[in-house]
From TrEMBL, chain A:
Signal peptide: none
Protein's name according to its UniProt entry: Peptide/nickel transport system ATP-binding protein/oligopeptide transport system ATP-binding protein
Source species, domain of life: Bacteria
NCBIfam families in alphabetical order: oligo_HPY
SUPFAM superfamilies according to UniProt: P-loop containing nucleoside triphosphate hydrolases
Pfam families for the chain: ABC_tran, oligo_HPY
Alphabetized GO MF terms: ATP binding; ATP hydrolysis activity
Keyword terms, alphabetized: ATP-binding, Cell membrane, Membrane, Nucleotide-binding, Transport
From TrEMBL, chain B:
PROSITE patterns named in the record: ABC_TM1
Protein name as annotated: Peptide/nickel transport system permease protein
Record keywords, A-Z: Cell membrane, Membrane, Transmembrane, Transmembrane helix, Transport
GO cellular component: plasma membrane
Cellular localisation: Cell membrane
Domain (ABC transmembrane type-1): residue spans on this chain: 90-289
TrEMBL record, chain C:
Entry protein name: Oligopeptide transport system ATP-binding protein
Membrane topology recorded in Swiss-Prot or TrEMBL: Peripheral membrane protein
Similarity annotation: Belongs to the ABC transporter superfamily.
Keywords: ATP-binding, Nucleotide-binding, Transport
Region (Disordered) residue spans: 333-353
GO cellular component: plasma membrane
GO biological process terms held by the UniProt record: peptide transport; transmembrane transport
PANTHER family the UniProt entry points to: D,D-DIPEPTIDE TRANSPORT ATP-BINDING PROTEIN DDPF-RELATED, TRANSPORT ATP-BINDING PROTEIN
Automatic annotation (TrEMBL), chain D:
Protein name: Peptide/nickel transport system permease protein
GO cellular component terms, semicolon-separated: plasma membrane
The organism's place on the tree of life at top rank: Bacteria
Transmembrane segments: 116-139, 151-176, 200-220, 265-287, 307-333
Main location: membrane
UniProt xrefs under Pfam families: BPD_transp_1, BPD_transp_1_N
Keywords: Cell membrane, Membrane, Transmembrane, Transmembrane helix, Transport
Length: 337, 303, 353, 340, 544
């Protein structure tokens, strides 16, 4: 982890809202993070916490309407991606920043061959001619571990299994040697054995290509395996951000803590009952004025209802947004003991 | 640890149609359509009381009049009051449109659901549909009219008898598309997990159909139904044209259009008004269909 | 640990579920999708049997066939001693209340056009003659039991979170006081934080009502948590079945081993150091399984014999059975030269069973 | 795919034979007499003789079998003869129309060109209008363009062609003086041969009105299908993927989404095509295009059973055939679908 | 000079389907073929006979007609050529006779040759027609557009059952007329060009003609009168106001002429009640419950305002009539007694006859209600008439249920259909009929007992009203024996009056003329209702 290097991607105070018939939905509230070169940032959080929306709004991929940017800046290569022109943004999409989507079954266009879909960004961003693009596409497929790559370029997505389709998605995202790769739950829809294959592949590729990666997932196990740093999101906000070991060892936010306890372990002692996080995720109808986790938090105090806790740095590299972060650290330590 | 959504007391389940209406109200097009539709209905139902002129009364001395106070929409070539004829024609047209559409939907849905749901019936029913699709309409209608006109007229009187005949004739020749659409839809819905769930409960097929399948195919049916009304109305006018329709002195909008065509240059209003109300009817029904489709789907309703 | 005193509730023997593939001019049957191919297991009253395996290996089909949502190709299914494998649907109807199902996708398994109350009362409509008020009372009771606010009775499924929807599904399954519930990946579509709620609920209900579960999942850690015994399926066959702890501590089949090693652990320390077995390639098509062991195309320890002969499920420990030639070899190594000859016989038995 | 097609064709044969029987019985049972057109001055005895000369004396099943034989054996022989100059038909009796006393196939082949030209162009123009309208309406859902499109297509759907046709005639041929270059002919000249630029222009001019009427009618329908299909596809995940690749909106919509949206629309259009062959009865009559549709109407009115039977049966064959083609096309367009 | 005036466009809204009138009796076919093939003699616009391919009209005076009325001899003009250049001879005339009377040919015009025992060629230019019995009206064969001469050479192989198979001959007959067929598209269009061998070297003035068919009367009228695309449009059955409005465009004019076509109401003298067993409905077994009463029939007639009907329906193309035979001049009865509408009188008549109005305004006597079914074919003007008449009848306490039947069914003789005009399963029905040429004998002879349509005759027969009176049959027989024109006239008028004003079996409404239209630039049009409208197309010219 090359500490202190200039971040490739720097997001500051990103806000995204959805204008719906039922009113505004504040899906992303003041999210900030930065991505250092070659780093893998894991993003976890429960469903609907705004992980996908955050990442998609970086590149303006949300349907608009209803989505709308409500503030913040996304610095990439010295430019604010929220302000650049449409054509500049398109040059970044797929060219400098690759994107892998969650569902490999539907994210590929069913009526075009896999080859065509891989070649598209190549021809667009790298200006390759058809032949060269095809060669490169075959290399890419080979790179992501699909055997007999040159022949399979002519196949359609439905002729691939889920795992292979996800590899194709990865190949598309990698096509133009992006500086940043954003992977939105790339393995959630896959079997564990296939997931293991993909994770192995990404580890490999990272070593080979050295790009910075944002990896969204639900699965703390995956995060533990591949992330350098972890960002925990809740209710459209970043509630905790820490290096991976630090986070698993010393989670500071009650949500992170609860999350770590809900998952049964494969090897550890088998508890009698699983810990749960009761209650509902917040409905993001209004701009947050209280801690979004308050209603489900076992440690909530009146203060939590009055003020949305700001993100602060607890120890270097470890940020939390909780009024009682310090106390809770101790509580947990005690509980562990 | 309370639920984020808490309410005070348990309300008993309320009628689902209220929810439908609540959603329906929010659809601007549908509300517009409803207003127009009811305006047309009001014209037809209340019209005769407000404008108490006999649509069949011939005042030959006052023929071919333009629009005036005595004859708001003018008169036709025999001096019949056009407004009264439009009102009277609407009654038949609307009745034929609605009844034929309903019957056609019934047939189409029945065949579609049966062939989609029961694999064994599928082949035969789809061949039947092909057969009807490939049958030429005109001879079929001629035949139906020849075979059934007299008995129907004897049993139900000339107007009711022909009404039944026309409604049945239109329905019998127009259910096939609905059947195909419904079948396709049923085939996919049949594979959905909630149908499997119903099976695991032990719900017999017939109740699976009525409880789960039918409500789910409502929206394609709704769409065909709205198109069906327009289709029925237009077919009725074509039938009148071929002399198979209602007695000639019995106005329908289709017939008014037909009758007005030769005078289009001389008295364009004779075509204009029936065309206007006809379009208004079809258009409003279409918008209502749009609204209903949204309103009937709780998923959209929630948005 | 199968307690011999406990009464078996569900006995599945030699279950086969083939889906015909037709082709050609006259739609002749040209083959089968062998979704479930000769599966046998027993579930004892009050216990939870886990069924794990990769996507497409036939878990759901197996679960559905056990409930007779499919007509099995062969084999017997005994529930409480009655063989339902060949019973007609009308005869089966009175048995339905005893066996229910909870589905994988809580969104898809609830009719989006029905209110929660009507969804939960559907089984009551079908099998009881309760009055409207009684039904409503029972619905409220069930909603309480699964932890749903009574106010939600006349809402629609889409207005709920995934976990709540799954509760609705569970309430529906419980409506008729079943003995046996097939849970077909009840938590796969749920958020981690909600999975725990549902699993806890299932456990609580089991405790309270003495339910028996067939718990289908591919989340091995959750299976470990909830199940008493675990069966591992691969390509339509059970490759290993054992009491939970035995399986997790000493998996014998290479597939089980690979599966367990592929599960990421939420612990960065072990994760970075762990040795994984990464399987190569994809699961073969169930319509055209390999000639020998189904796993031979991906098995890291594949031997020539694996490509020729299907291994049979053999007892390797108390309540622990696995189907692998390696184990034959182990036994062969200990049992002497005759062991090698026994293997083919095993297979024949397995095939005929 | 091939076996699928062959299977469907084999299945279609009994269906078609059955259809032909039903058609024949229908026509047989339908009221009406081929001699109705003749003046009342012709006495009954003469009429009876004429009827016998038409072959109406035979029982229906004999005539049915005769028709089947003629349709499936004799007529193809004649066709082969005319193409290869052979003489296999050996002057066998062909299917003769009651009205014209000439082989119905001659009439049909004489009329097919203008029907195909006019109705086909109408449909083509309709499609060409409908697709962009559908695409834009969907892409800008609920915009004024979309609302207007919906409105106009509903009008197009609800006003019968006999009204639109005459309105167009009144505007373009009556109100506009025929010295004006905007004046358009209302009577289709089927004898016009396109030889040079002038006759080409004349042909185009005389096609404008009927084609417009038909195009409006088809466009109204197809644009609706197009719109809903586009809407379905615009919400799909792969659209987002395409955008994430940095493709321009034009490429995303016109290549990725359109290609997918066209799949159901193409099949809808395929199913509309048999209608092109039978023509558009009302439009053909209004503009005197005198194609197959007008012939069918005339024959129906004149109770010309052999003509009606043959045309409707060909129509039935076309429907069955195009259903098959639609399915095959679906398979070709959508690589996910493989019939076997 | 031939061909100097270029091209002419004619539109018939009923498209010709064949150019051989012997295989089709349809007006459209007869008239279109009259441009190409011609009869020996024609009627002119006054109904007078004019020699066409012959020197003169054979009469008793010039000896062409035998004294015993048993033969007639036609002398063909010398030097006539077919359009293919071969000479026209008496052999062609004889052939035409053989062609039409072939027993298996199904000739549509065989009635024209009824009673003919032989047709012989005395020499190349002389044809003698012999009749079995004395024929007071021998001018039927080969006179008028219905029986033109066809070329022997062309049709020699088309006799009998082969007739329909000769498509090229049927579609392109070789003739002596002013035009010859270039291309015939059945039910669509005929392209014609001037006949190079036409007998008058200066004619026809048009080099080419397009004869377009199809559409409707409205469109045809519009094409001539409003858009100016066509020069001549046939039979504009349109409301007068519509025609006037079209004519106002100033591109052409409507012309009209009268013939023998009478729109009438036929009264059913037998009971059509559906409650009767099939086979007895509308047969003489059961007389009509109330229409057998002459007072009712008379009242029905009196209630009608014929002038108004004319005004509404036909304008210049119609005039009121009470008669069955409105022309030609010599035979016309010219009754006018019914012209004035007399509702009060009709009411009184019915009152006196004991028909009393019930609570619903409908008269009844002895439980028999004056409530009837009034049918006609589908046609806009007829439907208007129905509506009007229904209202007038309601004013005299007679209820009418209107019914319209598609013309193809109504006029089709299908014995299986309940809706034909012959079966007459209605109380009154309305249609128009006329007779060929100028002699009404055959027309008036229809109302004899043996011509009543009945199940045994497959419902064939022309006595639609089911009139059966020996006295009338006797008059028919007498007419068949009478050759003297004055006596024939008297008898015909008597018979006409018997059917109409005396007994009101037939309620004449409108003497329907023909309205056709031609453009202002088309000269020489003489509308002729006694023959083909296009009879003098050779004389047409372009107004410069
Ligand atoms: N098109 C939309 N219209 C309205 N609200 C939306 C839309 N898309 C997303 N949202 C809202 O934005 C919030 C964040 O959604 P997002 O998809 O980012 O969640 P996520 O963290 O990616 O969840 P998951 O793990 O399920 O993918 C949710 O509350 C969701 O309801
Ligand atoms: N109705 C059917 N017709 C034909 N094949 C079927 C049918 N249902 C399932 N299959 C096939 O049977 C095999 C097993 O399917 P099944 O759904 O049981 O797998 P699963 O283990 O439940 O997978 P998942 O984890 O994805 O739910 C699959 O290959 C599937 O394609
Ligand atoms: Mg997401
Ligand atoms: Mg499954
Ligand atoms: Ni537990």
């Amino acid at each position: 982890m090359p500490d202190g290097a200039q971040p490739v991607l720097d997001v500051r105070g990103l806000k995204t809202v959805f204008r719906t018939r039922g009113g505004l939905i504040h899906a992303v509230n003041d999210v900030s993070f930065s991505l250092r070169p070659g780093e893998l940032l894991g993003v976890v959080g429960e469903s609907g916490s705004g992980k996908s929306v955050t990442m998609m709004s970086l590149l303006g991929l949300l349907p608009s309407p209803p989505a709308q940017n409500a503030g913040g800046q996304v610095m990439f290569e010295g430019k604010d991606l929220l302000k650049v022109s449409a054509s500049e943004l398109r040059a970044v999409r797929g060219g400098r920043i690759g994107f892998i989507f969650q569902d490999p079954m539907t994210s590929l266009n069913p009526v075009f061959t896999v080859g065509y879909q891989i070649m598209e960004p190549l021809r667009k961003h790298m200006g390759l001619d058809k032949e060269r693009a095809r060669k490169r596409a075959a290399e890419l497929l080979d790179l992501v571990g699909i055997p007999d790559a040159a022949r399979r370029l002519k196949d359609y997505p439905h002729q691939f299994s889920g795992g292979m389709r996800q590899r194709v998605m990865i190949a598309i995202a990698l096509a133009c040697d992006p500086k940043v790769l954003i992977a939105d739950e790339p393995t959630t829809a896959l079997d564990v054995t296939i997931q293991a294959q993909i994770l192995e592949l990404v580890r490999d590729l990272r070593q080979k290509l050295g790009m910075a990666i944002v990896w969204i997932t639900h699965d703390l196990g995956v995060i533990a395996g591949i992330a350098d740093r972890v960002m925990v999101m809740y209710g459209g906000q970043v509630v905790e951000m820490a290096p991976v070991k630090e986070l698993f060892a010393r989670p500071r936010h009650p949500y992170t803590q609860a999350l770590l306890q809900t998952i049964p372990s494969l090897h550890g002692p088998r508890g009698d009952r699983l810990r749960t996080i009761d209650g509902q995720p917040p409905i993001l109808r209004k701009a947050p004025s209280a801690c979004p986790f308050m209603s489900r938090c076992r440690h909530a105090v009146p203060m939590c209802g009055l003020e949305n806790p700001a993100r602060r740095t607890l120890t270097p590299g470890h940020d939390v947004a909780c009024h009682r972060a310090e106390e809770l650290a101790i509580v947990r330590e005690v509980a562990h003991g | 640890m309370t639920d984020a959504v808490t309410t005070t007391s348990a309300r008993p389940p309320r009628n689902q149609w209220w929810d439908v209406w609540d959603q329906f109200k929010t659809h601007k097009g549908a509300m517009f359509g409803t207003v127009v539709f009811f305006a047309v209905i009001a014209l037809i139902v209340l019209g005769p009381y407000i404008w108490a002129v006999d649509a069949k009364y011939i005042n030959i001395r006052a023929r071919d009049q333009g629009m005036s106070l005595t004859y708001p929409l003018g008169t036709d070539q025999l001096g019949r009051d056009m407004l009264a004829r439009v009102i009277a024609g609407g009654k038949t047209t609307l009745a034929v449109g609605l009844a034929a559409m309903a019957l056609s939907m019934l047939l189409g849905t029945l065949v579609g659901v049966l062939s989609g749901f029961f694999k064994r019936a599928d082949g035969a029913l789809m061949r039947l549909t092909d057969l009807f699709l490939a049958l030429p309409l005109l001879p079929l209608l001629l035949l139906m009219v020849m075979l059934f006109r007299e008995p129907l007229v004897m049993n139900f009187g000339p107007e009711m008898g022909i009404f039944i005949l026309i409604v049945v004739a239109i329905a019998v020749t127009s259910w096939m598309n609905t059947a195909r659409i419904v079948r396709g839809e049923v085939l996919t819905i049949k594979e959905r997990e909630f149908v499997l769930a119903a099976r695991s409960i032990g719900t017999p097929s017939r109740r699976i159909i009525t409880r789960h399948i039918l409500p789910s195919v409502m929206s394609p049916i709704m769409v065909s139904a709205t198109l069906g009304i327009a289709n029925a109305v237009i077919t009725e006018s074509a039938l009148s044209f071929l002399g198979l329709g209602f007695p000639p002195d019995f106005p329908t909008w289709g017939r008014l259009l037909q009758d007005g065509m030769p005078y289009i240059n001389l008295h364009p209003e004779r075509v204009l008004w029936p065309a206007l109300v006809l379009s208004a009817l079809v258009l409003s029904v279409n918008y209502i269909g749009d609204g209903l489709r949204d309103a009937l789907d709780p998923r959209i309703r929630g948005r | 640990m199968a307690d011999p005193v406990r009464k078996p509730l569900v006995e599945v023997d030699g279950l086969k579920m083939y889906f015909p593939i037709t082709a050609g001019l006259f739609r002749r049957k040209v083959g089968d999708v062998k979704a479930v191919d000769d599966v046998s297991f027993t579930i004892y009253e009050g216990e939870t049997l886990g069924l794990v395996g990769e996507s497409g290996c036939g878990k759901s089909t197996c679960g559905r066939a056990v409930l007779r949502l499919y007509d099995p190709t062969a084999g017997s299914i005994r529930i409480d001693g009655t063989n339902i494998a060949t019973m007609s649907q009308t005869m089966l109807r009175p048995m339905r209340p005893a066996m229910q199902m909870v589905f994988q996708d809580p969104q898809a398994c609830l009719n989006a056009r029905m209110t929660v109350a009507s969804i939960i009362s559907e089984p009551l409509d079908e099998h009881t003659k309760m009055s409207k008020a009684e039904k409503l009372a029972r619905v409220y009771e069930l909603m309480d039991a699964v932890g749903l606010n009574r106010d939600f009775a006349n809402r629609y499924p889409h207005e709920f979170s995934g976990g709540q929807r799954q509760r609705i599904g569970i309430a529906r399954a419980l409506a008729l006081n079943p003995k046996f519930i097939v849970c077909d990946e009840p938590i796969a579509a749920l958020d981690v934080s909600i999975q725990a709620q549902v699993v806890n609920l299932l456990e609580d209900l089991q405790e309270k009502l003495g339910l028996t579960y067939l718990f289908i999942s591919h989340d091995l850690s959750m299976v470990r948590h909830i199940c008493d015994r675990v069966a591992v399926m691969y390509l339509g066959r059970i490759v290993e079945i054992a009491p939970r702890d035995t399986l997790y501590q000493a998996p014998l089949h290479p597939y089980t081993q690979a599966l367990l090693s592929a599960v990421p652990e939420p612990d960065p320390d072990t994760e970075t150091t762990r040795q994984r077995i990464i399987l190569q390639g994809d699961v073969p098509s169930p319509s055209n399984p390999p000639k020998g062991c189904n796993f031979c195309t991906r098995c890291p320890k594949v031997m020539p014999i694996c490509r020729e002969i299907k291994p049979a499920l053999v007892e390797v420990g108390p309540g622990h059975r696995a189907a692998c030639h390696l184990l034959d070899n182990n036994t062969a190594a200990t049992a002497g030269p005759t062991g090698g000859n026994e293997a083919p016989e095993h297979i024949q038995q397995g095939e005929n069973a | 795919m091939l076996t699928f097609a062959i299977r469907r064709i084999l299945l279609a044969i009994p269906t078609l034979i059955f259809i032909s029987l039903v058609l024949f019985l229908l026509l047989e049972a339908a009221p009406g007499d081929p001699l109705a057109d003749m003046p009342l001055t012709i006495p009954p005895e003469v009429r009876e003789k004429i009827r016998l000369a038409m072959g109406l004396g035979e029982p229906w099943y004999v005539r049915y079998v005769l028709w089947l034989n003629n349709f499936f054996v004799t007529e193809p022989l004649y066709w082969v003869d005319s193409v290869f100059g052979t003489d296999w038909a050996q002057g066998k009796q062909r299917i003769l129309s009651y009205q014209t006393r000439s082989p119905v196939f001659d009439t049909i082949s004489e009329r097919l060109p203008q029907t195909l030209l006019v109705v086909g162009t109408g449909m083509l123009v309709g499609i060409l209008i409908a697709i962009p309208i559908g695409v834009i309406s969907a892409y800008r859902q609920y915009s004024w363009f979309d609302q207007l499109g919906t409105f106009i297509s509903m009008i197009g759907f609800s006003i019968p062609t006999f009204v639109t046709g005459v309105v167009l005639i009144v505007i373009f041929a009556v109100w506009i003086p025929n010295s004006s270059p905007f004046w358009l002919p209302t009577i289709y000249d089927t004898t016009l041969r396109v030889q040079d630029w002038d006759s080409f222009i004349a042909q185009v001019r005389q096609m404008i009105l009927p084609v417009t009427v038909l195009a409006l009618y088809y466009a109204a329908q197809i644009s609706r299908y197009m719109r809903s299909s586009m809407l379905d596809n615009l919400g799909q995940d792969y659209v987002r993927t395409a955008r994430a690749k940095g493709l321009t909106e034009k490429v995303v919509v016109l290549i990725h989404v359109l290609r997918n949206s066209m799949i159901p629309v193409v099949t809808v259009i395929t199913l509309l095509i048999p209608g092109v062959f039978t023509g558009a009865i009302i439009t053909e009559t209004i503009f005197k295009v005198n194609g197959i549709g007008q012939q069918l109407l005339l024959s129906l009115q004149g109770n010309d059973a052999p003509m009606v039977m043959t045309i409707t049966f060909i129509f039935a064959v076309l429907i069955v055939a195009f259903n098959l083609i639609a399915d095959v096309l679906y398979g070709l367009l959508d690589p996910r679908i493989r019939y076997d | 000079e031939r061909g100097a005036d270029g091209h002419v466009n004619v539109i018939y809204w009923q498209a010709p389907s064949i150019l051989n009138p012997y295989l089709s009796g349809g007006t459209k076919d007869v008239e279109s073929s009259s441009l190409v093939i011609e009869p020996l003699a024609r009627h002119d616009q006054t109904g007078a006979m004019v020699p066409w391919l012959v020197e003169d009209i054979p009469t008793l005076d010039n000896g062409g007609l035998a004294e015993d009325l048993k033969s007639i001899t036609w002398k063909i003009k010398p030097g006539l050529l077919w359009s293919d250049g071969t000479p026209f001879t008496s052999a062609d005339v004889v052939f035409t006779y053989d062609y039409c009377t072939h027993p298996e040919g199904g000739c549509a015009q065989s009635a024209k040759f009824e009673g003919v025992s032989a047709v012989e060629a005395l020499d190349d230019l002389t044809v003698k027609i012999s009749f079995a019995d004395a024929k007071p009206n021998p001018y039927l064969p080969f006179v008028g557009a219905q029986s033109p001469i066809i070329q022997k050479a062309q049709f020699a192989d088309c006799m009998g059952t082969k007739a329909p198979e000769c498509t090229s001959a049927n579609f392109g007959p070789i003739g002596t007329g002013p035009f010859k067929v270039v291309e015939f598209k059945t039910n669509d269009v005929i392209s014609l060009e001037a006949n190079p061998n036409y007998r008058d070297p200066a004619k026809p003035r048009f080099a080419t003609m397009t004869f377009k068919g199809g559409g409707d009367a409205e469109g045809a009228g519009r094409a001539v009168l409003e858009t100016g695309e066509f020069d001549y449009a046939w039979n504009l059955q349109l409301a007068p106001s519509v025609i006037d409005q079209m004519a106002a465009a100033g591109k052409g004019q409507a012309v009209s002429a009268f013939g023998t076509l009478v729109e009438r109401i036929e009264v059913n003298l037998t009971n059509p009640s559906p409650s009767l067993p099939e086979g007895e409905r509308s047969t003489t077994k059961h007389p009509h419950p109330f229409l057998s009463d002459i007072n009712v029939r008379k009242a029905l007639s009196m209630a009608i305002d014929r002038e108004l009907l004319v005004e509404v329906g036909y304008g210049r193309a119609g005039r009121p009539t009470c008669d069955l035979v409105p022309g030609p001049e010599v035979y016309a009865a010219k009754n006018t007694s019914c012209f004035a509408q007399d509702i009060a009188g009709a009411n009184k008549l019915l009152d006196d006859a004991g028909w009393v109005k019930g609570g619903d305004g409908i008269r009844a006597k002895d439980g028999v209600k004056l409530s009837m079914v009034y049918q006609t074919s589908t046609n806009a003007v007829r439907q208007d008439f129905q509506a009007l008449i229904k209202q007038w009848w309601s004013e005299i306490g007679v209820a009418a249920e209107l019914k319209n039947v598609s013309a193809s069914v109504f006029f089709g003789g299908d014995p299986g259909s309940p809706d034909t005009f012959q079966k007459f399963y209605a109380d009154v029905e309305m249609y128009a009929n006329n007779f060929d040429g100028t002699d009404p004998e055959a027309y008036l002879s229809a109302y004899t007992c043996n011509k009543i349509p009945r199940p045994e005759s497959q419902w064939q027969g022309e006595n639609i009203n089911r009139v059966c009176d020996p006295a009338y049959d006797a008059m028919v027989a007498e007419l068949g024996r009478t050759a003297d024109l004055e006596k024939r006239r008297e008898l015909a008028v008597k018979m006409n009056n018997y059917l109409t004003v005396d007994n009101h079996y037939i309620i004449g409404l409108v003497d329907r003329g023909r309205v056709s239209a031609h453009s202002n630039s088309l000269g020489g049009v003489v509308l002729n209702t006694w023959d083909s409208e296009l009879w003098n197309a050779a004389d047409w010219y372009r107004v410069k």
